[in-house]
Every structure is written in C-alpha cells, then in structure tokens.
TrEMBL record:
One of its GO terms (molecular function) is acyl-CoA dehydrogenase activity. Pfam families: LuxC (PF05893). This is Acyl-CoA reductase LuxC. GO terms for biological process: bioluminescence. It comes from Arcticibacter pallidicorallinus. It comes from the Bacteria. Keywords: NADP. InterPro entries: Ald_DH/histidinol_DH, CoA_reduct_LuxC.
Amino acid sequence: MSVHQIKEAFTQLGHYLLSDDEQLLSLVNASHHYNAWFTADQVGKAVRALGTMLNGRDIEQWIDGAYAGRTQSGKAKVVGLVLAGNIPLVGFHDILTVLASGHIASVKLSSQDKHLTPHILSRLVDFYPAFAKRIVYVDRLKDFDAVIATGSNNTSRYFEYYFKSVPHIIRGNRNSIAVLDGTETTEDFVALGHDIFDYFGLGCRNVSKLLVPEGYDFVPFFEAIEEPFKGMINHHKYANNYDYNKSIYLVNGAKHLDNGFLLLKRDEGMASPLAALFFDEYKDRTDAEAKLTLISGQIQCVVANAELSIDSQVVGFGCSQSPRLWDYADGIDTFAFLLSI
C-alpha cells in the first residue's frame, strides 16, 4: 500500500468530517435514536474533533514519525479490534492506526456506536479504494494475528485471558484529573468545564477528579460553569444519575457541594460517579506530583496550566478531549506495536 496515498486519504477524510455533508449531518442528528447519550451536539463534537485531528500536517508528522527507522514486518496481519461505545467514535483512532500500519482491521463494533463508524469508513474507502479489502466487520473475533481491545476493568481481565496467545493491547478503565493552583481565570474554568462535561463525562479523557491546594475556594469555579453547563441537567439520563448520587450522599451523610447539576465531593478515589466530581488537596507542587505519580496507572491525562514533572500526559484546560494523533490511549504507542507484529 502507498503511504503517500494513505496520508492523502486520511487528509481528505479530515476535510469531509469538517464539512456540511447532508448524509453525515443526518447520521449525527439520528444518533440519539440508537444511544440516548449520543445527542446531536455531542456526536457533532466528536466528528469535528476527529476531523481536526486528521489535518495534513499532523498526519504527515504522525506517519513519518512512526515509520522512522521502522518498516512493516512482512505481510499484512489481521488485527482484531474490540471497540468501546462509551463516547462517539471512541475506537476510530485504532482503526486508522491499523490501516496506516498496512494491516487488516477486523472490527467488532460496539452495540452502542455501530452506525456512524461504518459510514465514515465507507467515505475513507471512497478516498482510497484499496482500504476496501482492509476493513472487515465481525460479530465475533476469529482468525486474528493480534488484538486491541477496550473495555471495563472486568472485561479487560477476560480479554487478557482470552487473547493471551497473541500480541495484544488491552485497555481497562482510566480517568483524567485536573490540577488547580488558585490562579485560574473564568476562561480557565469554562474550558475545564468542557473537560468535565463533554460527552456527559463518559470518556476516559474526561476529568473525574480535581487536585487543589489546601483550603481551595470552589465558589469561582461554580460561578464560571453555571451558565455554560447548567443545561446538562436537562438530559434525562444525566439528571437520573445526578438525582441518584445526590440521594446516596444525603442518605449516607456524605459531605459534598452541590450547584444543581454537579456534585463535588472530597474522595481519595479517581473514578467519580456520573454527575459527580471528586477532589483532593495537596500541600505544594511536590506533594501534587507525588499524588499524581501514585495513581499514574489510573490516569489517562492530566489537565493543568503548570508544567509538572510526571510521566502522565499533561494538556491545557479545555484540551482533554482534543488529542493529537500521537496521544495514544494509556500512553501505549499503538503504531509501534502494530509495526512490530
């Protein structure tokens, strides 16, 4: 396969995803019929984020960087992909990476997200017909040479056992965390609101916890996110989760803050319930970095304005759901893995 043609096809796909194509918009608007979490606004956000990711400059840098000093090992291998369905198009990057590495993508779509991905891939085939023989949809993985599977911590243990005899990448639950230092502006808080609320907080790159200085004043945070995000409570499934978790906190006498659409609770845990946000305090930057290092295996990315001496990926406020092509899930270089099999 021609690497140049792959780059061109990916670039054309990026342009398409940022266009006003009627069929694409129709699918975006219809997504909520199949998954109540996939509102037109949220699905459209995911489509635009993918389109922005697939810009010519980044595609060139990503593919050239991956192949630098490496070559594909032998003939094309069949790579089984078990896609998650927690947020729209969440497994699309894996598919692109399999295709860019010259392999065959055997795709098991999530039942929660099985309409938009095939349409977008059909357009990719239009841009580069050679992909038609490299994309296969299956109900059950079989006859594969390698696997990339994403699921919960429980399903990941099953995946580890089931796929132990082939090269694999297995992903479980991770969450993202934001580090505040008291210098945040209203604009910072609004941007952070997107890190928290985009896709209703269901993604691994969504912020589920705040790390704040001791005695932090949350009033400016609540004031800043009130107007832009109070509409979250109008989504019935989000509201149900808010009501349920609020009831649990009240019944248990758990100390928490509540602004009418978000519950804020001090907790050592990383994965907060939907419609809730955990926080913990730190004494100084060294203490903050130590806390982050301790839970690094649970972190997808860290949102912060400051430079931090940690191994986890650090992004600015509002950027957690806008990864670049080389921002690999769990910090595992998928491209390098695929070129090695």
